[in-house]
Amino acid sequence: MKHFTYERASDRTDAITQVAANPQAKFIAGGTNFMDMWKEGVETPERLIDIRKFPGEITVTDGTLRLDATTTNSQVAYHSQVRDRYPVLSEAILAGASPQLRNMATTGGNLMQRNRCSYFHDVSYPCNKRVPNSGCPAIEGINRMHAIFGTSDRCIAAHPSDMCVALAALGAVVQTRKPDGETRNIAFKDFHLLPGDTPHIETALEHGELIEAVEIPPLPWAKRSHYLKVRDRHSYAYALVSAAVALEIEGDKIVNARVAMGGVGTKPWRSPEAENALIGAKNNEESFIAAASAALEGAKPYQYNVFKIELAQSTLVQALLTVNSEQ
Amino acid sequence: MVTEMTSTQDRTNIQAKTGKNIDRVDGRLKVTGEACYSAEFPLEGIAHGYIIQSTIAKGTIEAIDTSQAEQLPGVLAILTHQNAPKLNSLKSKNFGGGYPGENFLPLQDNQVHFDGQHIGIVVAETYEQARLAASLIEINYDEAEPMFDLEQALEQSERYDPGERLQPSWGDIEGGLQQAAVTIEETYTTPLEHHNPMETSATTAEWHDDELTVYDSTQWVMGTRGMIARGLGLPEEKVRVISHFVGGGFGCKGFFWTHPLLAAIAARKVNRPVRLMLTRQQMFSSCGHRPRTVQKITLGADNEGKLTAIRHHTDTETSFVGDHAEPCGNITKMLYACPNMEIKHQIARTNTGTPTPMRGPGETSGTYALEAALDELAVKAGIDPMEFRIINHADRHPQSDKPWSSKHLIECYQRAADAFGWQNRDPRPGSMREGDDLIGWGMATATYPGYRFPTAAKAQILANGKVIVSSATHDLGTGTYTIMTQIAADTLGLPIERVKFELGDSKLPIASVSGGSSTAASVSPAVRSACEAACFKLIEMAIADNESPLHDYQAEEITTEAGRIFVKESPEIGETYEAVLQRHNLPLVEAEISPQDKGSRYKSIAARTKPGIVEDEGGSDEFAIHSFGAHFVEVRINPRRNQVKVSRVVGAFDVGRILNQKTARSQIYGGTIFGIGMALMEETLLDPHSGRVIIHNLADYHVPIQADIPEMETIFVEYPDYHLNPLGARGIGEIATAGIAAAVVNAIYHATGKRVRDLPITPDKLL
């Protein structure tokens, strides 16, 4: 492990100033994802600025739920407002990692989670994310876990977060503060970037820009929402595919819908195609199958992940059936 | 107290504590962290090693540049093939042909035979310094095309010939198939798998002049001592290997790998103790794996369901630097009665590390294929799968025609089936549902040989009333400390608190590898005999002592119970062990018993003690000795998610006497979980271009976690097997892993109507 310096920041301004001052500095909160990569030499920070002790509050203002960046995954998942108003978010968080990890992992950290591509995690292989322009062995390698949406000829790694899939479905907003003091609101769909030609640039954040909070707009009908994850074992495994869905139903018609998928995209994958197919349709299996088929249109599988198309469709249908059956 | 004693003692029926749910005697040490594992010995001046591994699967090292690494603070030494000492060949005829572990010495040349090969070691003041230095070493390779595709290797690569032993056949296989009313022929594949014990392999090596002490996470202190001594050219008595606690082994710590030698030469180089603990990632290329198998099974049965032909061809692999044969057909030749049999194994060399036994080597992969194929044939014949197995029950060993030492398999089927509720099964696939879930019920037979290896033990009865018993065996978390303490305590009639059992030290009386589920069956009789022999010495002292109440009695008239020796017919005439020792002014009396027969694994190792005290019926070449069992499994599958949930497991096992219900059940649970992992999730993948191991951490290599495992019900049909040893116990470490994967896949078929013949059955394979 490379030598590094570590400091606990006194407040947000201090943290941002310290990270901005050193291009090799990083924020650290729960560290649950970062430590793995650090130990394997995937991350090689010179300086770590710890923000974990910053207050982590969950508040509601005018119906908007605000999660401070340093709220823990457990805190959010078990919060009564989250469980009552956004079950999909609570379920998504609890579908990820393990209780011990969720007690450490934070909301901001979850947004910054990096992928699980085996080639990315092993520094003896080339990887365009680690070393720009060095190549991508996953494209013709073991790519069973990889993405079928949003890939490029530089990177096909799937985004690993469960929580972010729910946040994408709910249309969350990421509040940040930049080194120059400016704060901004980043729509969730704009927060994570597609790999394109620059897979090493993963988010819209500038160096030293700190996530302060995630806000979820009021969405009363999201009470009827659900997260369904399919994986190789029943806990503590990344999604093969997952679905975050919410439905507003009047009579036998769907009037509003949210659909996002995990395990399939290079970023949390919201599907306006599926949502459009659902809105106005009847709330029956036929509509759900049509929506699932719309959701997977344009998917580009690789040698070992062709199954994701069918599995994502059936998972989506199951998630919609489950939500539909809720009263 | 005297009146409570039994006047006649059944010495073959030790019951006082043996068999009971005694808590682990080392439990407290483990949960409080006091148990000292191999990488935890706090030696003064310890330095830390880190292994340098190849990042190609085949080729030649052209250059190693260590200059940058050497300049780092804290770096003490870097050993590579350019400066490592020459080592002596490990080859030996003592292992019956096949070589345990890699037939390979580290750092002796510039050749790379597999990905992750150990090609150097860095020693530094701290672990972090060593690891950083290792990352800065630049290696240039001349890469060659590796051979790693199994199918291609079988066509083009060198073969390893395991000998005729693995190619038995009898009868007329083609004739048998022609007689058959139903036949099936299918191919079953199993992937490369890794043991992944909780504790990664570790060695701490310390030299005192020309004497070496090695703390090593080994399942075989004597074997490790022999290999280190041979490799370094030392007499064995100059090497001491200590392995007090092993955090799980499952076979990957059973035989010899390079890291103990690397720690030893590194410690000598820096003249300080060196600790070397492999990382989880390194465990995927440093100490063996279960090799890939492709098993083609052809079965025929007549109208009544009697098997007329069994053909089992296994294609598998070993490395270029070691010989391993995964003997999948070994169980096929003994599990069912069949007049026509053909077993074959073909083994190709690939550029992988050397495979090694992994919990049920051969038995586990082999029962998966055979028991899945039998299910297919039973369905085709329209016969209940359990009934089908009973119809084909082997009343004698089908190959040798020997009688079984003790076989109660049909009772296992029946008792497990009753507990499971098998009679309520609707045989039609997909017929049983609950809500959206498809429910499937499957079953399979389990079996594992009853092994017993030569073992010695020593017992010391101390003047303070305590007893110390020892043998150079091991506790892999299996309960050896506990059951041996129980046996010693029972033999001498003492509470277990007065007995201490010591193991895991090559200075102790010799024991063999803790592998092949052999430890309980091998060490128990030695422990009992040693205790009896020590006690007999006390009896002899008392008889000869005119101050003793036992003076002038005959040894045959005397027995022991509750720390006393006394006259069988008049229990009030006697005295305590301490009384004898104190009167003779002796601190202790001790006896060591040694294996008399080093040849046959089944033969008696009857103790060298006197009649009247020791009754060791021993094993016998007259009998075939196997354990048996039956697994019944329920799975639930939501047909849209395709994720298999094992919701119930019931197993019944015929494994001889149970020495401790609690540790025995844990062994069965662990073995069952291991097999569920094999059925549903475990797989190590190789990169299809470089042949390198690409799955090498526990986030990507899935083993079952709590949520994957249901409540399990374990039934022991307890029939002591006195043909294996005088305690009647057979080992149970591996049997539960055999067959369970087939029970799961058979249940999946029953739920879905789909036959998946390629493990593991992940959700994608059920689409």
Describe the fold and architecture:
The complex is a heterodimer of chains A (327) and B (767). Chain A has 327 residues and is α+β, with helices and mostly antiparallel strands. Chain A is built from 12 helices and 12 strands. In chain A, a hairpin with a 2-residue loop joins strand 4 (58-61) and strand 5 (64-68). In chain A, helix 5 (87-94) packs antiparallel against helix 8 (163-170), helix 10 runs antiparallel to helix 11 (285-295) and helix 11 (285-295) packs antiparallel against helix 12. The longest helix of chain A is centred in the last third of the chain and has 19 residues, at 307-325. In chain B, 23% of the residues lie in helices and 23% in strands. In chain B, strand 11, helix 6 and strand 12 form a beta-alpha-beta unit. The longest helix of chain B is centred in the C-terminal third of the chain and has 25 residues, at 519-543. Mean pLDDT of chain B is 92; it is low at 1-14, 95-99 and 597-619. The interface between A and B is large, with 36 and 36 residues.
Counting DSSP H or I runs of 4 or more residues, the number of helices of chain B is: 17
How many distinct beta strands of chain B?
28
Q: How would you sum up the global shape of chain B? A: globular
Number of helices of chain A: 12
Oligomer: heterodimer
